[in-house]
Design brief:
The structure is a homodimer. Chain A has twelve helices and 26 strands. The longest helix of chain A has 15 residues, at 305-319. In chain A, the strands form seven sheets. Chain A has a five-stranded parallel beta sheet. A five-stranded parallel beta sheet of chain A has the order 9-16-10-11-12, with helices on one face. The mean pLDDT of chain A is 96. Helix content of chain A is 26%, strand content 29%. Chains A and B meet through helix 8, strand 22, strand 23 and helix 10 of A and helix 8, strand 22, strand 23 and helix 10 of B.
């Protein structure tokens, strides 16, 4: 008997799962139907800011595999512009609607994969849905924003929220010739860093010509007709022909929740380590689920392509009859704002505090290469270590060329629960073009170890 | 009572130890005399090729702290151009000679630090000591080579040995306008890599214009008067106005051995984890000692500034009355040959075999950034995993910009004895400017894990 797998959502998690399932079960065993609301499959949403900014001229290059490839090479029936509007768990079927307002129909499934992604947080304020206000979550969002800039030639953009997407979009729009203001409710942009590290990023963003306004919480949007004209805060009015929402995203768990699947405190679908939901034969992965943080043990929802791909693969292996698990996350992330590279992993100070850890911190400014080697630039490394055990809880890096991916070394140290004292003895790569003879990781760990010893 | 510490050798290990000892014991407690055969203290020997090649114009910038700084700021009596020619352990004294042929005198010590470094391997062949044949181990060697090139204007250089120093010097001399031939006895240059990875490096070196001759073992040096004119192998004669020996170095344990200190099979001074030799109150660190390899458990002597600094610090803490240990090494190293970056850690195939491990390997060619992101270049990652346990034994990376320091992540995975299977779930930094969405580390580990599963 041929079973049918229905996949809801055609990006990283959904299509990774579909491909893995196909790899293990051929078309004579498993029929696969994937429905996608937008026009694209398996694309890099993280690449949108670089397309808007002009670094990646061809939108198509953001697409890893298009629907036709999945149909031809994977025998997966991909249906774009098709939305799943209801899951009927008892009836083992999903109700589909052809977009924008085409006919609806029911499609039965034996196995279901829910990969509905995330939705940008939109402030519940008047005007937040006006024309000219954009989220940047799907490739369709990117297309819409891009053509809005080309068509309407906006002069002034306001970015609401100074997280990864906000900062990347601020840079992209500066490069498109817009005047850009960035409104951040917190003390510094890049709130996943501690404020002392975020301040280093804010400096770079200001240097780019972006007006960075911290402590500014949006209270409303002015509109003229259906179109945004300004963003209001308690303190000021920022004129805007274009607004980008960079307030982060929340898991899109609505469809799953309505069907009776358990959704957790983060709003994400609850899954086990094999990416199984609370309903038999129903799997979920990617931005719509909540996973767990390996240090705090708490549920977290972190929308990131790398997790979505890994989780989707784990789900697909399970759907295909194999066994794999997703081991949780530690919050590693990297980004780039103009020439400034940023990396973070594990807990920042606020997260450590919330999780109940007593901790020490240590920061060291060093160079990326031997001081005498051409092109050596400054970088700052910060570590956070648990006071009692000395265990590395988290780390942050802000610097120039060659700085960001150094966070991987610290991420693996966090993963393995290394103490900062043990880290001081690590055998890391040394050569003048790549590092001072005392690697920044080593000296920062040493400084933290000395603080722990001093008590 | 004021004790006296005598430090033999004024580079990384010796002066790190002296500084640490001073930090813990003031001049009223501990007198410190450091003797150094050359003119310089605390310099970066690893920087010499970049000085010769012109990247680092000022020789002085390779010096971290000069003798005057140690005298003034650390109250350390540094005596340059002074050689320790004998250690009298029973008499607790060292015999010193002022160079080149000045008077000799005895200097008593309570504590002794032996940091005599390494000496370049010189083939025991006629002509190997001729004028124009250079090692590149001390800053004085670098000065001599540099001024030889400026003064004698050699046209043709032969580099004997294709290790780190050999390749770096080959590039440096190409940049100085010399014609360069590189003779390597093995199958590929960069013998600390496996041949398949070394081949990638050889290609880059050839592209630079270096004549790379593999399988060529030197049988002699032709001379005219006291001066080298050619290098002979079984197969050919390579004319040479200048020869650089890049055959690696061996620990300079002669002085210690003559005094009765135990020297191991590697030729290095035997020390414990606190860097204590077999004689009470006598410490040793840096290129002259043997340490242990954390994976094989075997003694190794690896001449590298980063180890020398760490070991010197550990010795200095001990001399100062504190407690610290050196945890051994895993053979991490990075280098650069023109635009090609190289990193390695742990065991290569030959080392794994010698150590008795059954293993699998996996190599993956990927890009350094998302494929669509500007500046994405190719890199190759290879891992070696123990067949039975799946434990990562070693890894190698060859690629362009941004490739080399990624080895640190793999080094920390080796350090923590991670299995390749566990590594497939690692939470590493992902953003299009830094990595494909499947990080090369993850996919290479996955490929190895699949091979293990396939058996």
């Amino acid at each position: 008997m041929v079973e049918r797998l229905v996949v809801i959502g055609g990006d990283a998690a959904g299509m990774s799962a579909a491909s893995q399932a196909r790899r293990r079960r051929g078309p004579d065993e498993l029929e696969i139907v994937a429905v996608e609301r937008g026009d694209f499959t398996s694309y890099s949403a993280c690449g949108i800011p670089y397309h808007v900014g002009g670094d990646v001229p061809e939108l198509e290059s953001l697409i890893a595999r298009d629907p036709e490839t999945f149909r031809r090479d994977y025998a997966i029936d991909v249906r774009t512009r098709t939305e799943a509007v209801e899951i009927d768990l008892d009836g083992r079927r999903v109700r589909l609607r052809e977009l924008p307002d085409g006919p609806e129909s029911w499609l039965g499934f034996d196995l279901l994969m829910v990969a509905t992604g995330a939705v940008p947080r939109r402030p519940a304020l008047p005007g937040a849905d006006a024309r000219g206000v954009f989220g940047v979550q799907t490739l369709n969002d990117g297309v819409a924003l891009d053509s809005y800039i080309a068509r309407e030639r906006p002069a002034r953009a306001v970015v609401v929220g100074g997280g990864y997407i906000g900062l990347e979009m601020a840079e992209a729009m500066i490069r498109r010739g817009l005047k850009v203001d960035l409104l951040e409710a917190g003390e510094q942009p890049m709130g996943t860093l501690d404020p002392d590290m975020g301040a280093l990023v804010a400096g770079a963003v200001r240097g780019l010509g972006v007006g960075v306004h911290t402590g500014e919480r949006v209270t409303g949007f002015d509109t003229s007709g259906d179109r945004v004209t300004a963003v209001r805060t308690a303190a000021a009015v920022y004129p805007a022909d274009l607004v980008v929402l960079g307030l982060g995203v929340r898991p899109n768990g609505a469809l799953a929740e309505a069907a009776g699947l358990t959704v957790g405190e983060t709003g994400g679908v609850v899954v086990d380590r094999r990416m199984r939901t609370t309903a038999p034969g129903v799997w979920s992965a990617g931005d719509c689920v909540e996973t767990f943080h390996r240090i705090t043990g708490r549920p977290v929802a972190i929308a990131l392509g790398t997790h979505a791909n890994k989780q989707g693969r784990v789900a697909g292996i399970g759907i295909g009859g194999g066994y794999a698990t997703f081991p949780g996350v530690i919050g590693t992330a990297v980004t780039k704002v103009c020439d400034i590279q940023v990396g973070r992993t594990g807990l920042n100070e606020r997260e450590a505090e919330r999780a109940g850890f007593a901790y020490v911190t240590a920061s060291v400014a060093s160079t990326t290469r031997a001081g005498y080697y051409p092109g050596a630039t400054e970088m700052t490394t910060k570590v956070i270590a648990e006071r009692r055990s000395g265990r590395l809880l988290g780390a942050q890096i802000v610097g120039e060329e060659g700085a960001a991916k150094r966070i991987d070394a610290l991420a693996i140290a966090v993963w393995n629960e290394m103490t900062v004292e043990e880290m001081t003895g690590l055998d890391l790569g040394y050569a003048p073009p790549y590092s001072p003879v005392w690697d920044p990781v080593l000296i920062t760990a040493r400084k933290a170890a000395e603080r722990l010893e001093a008590g």
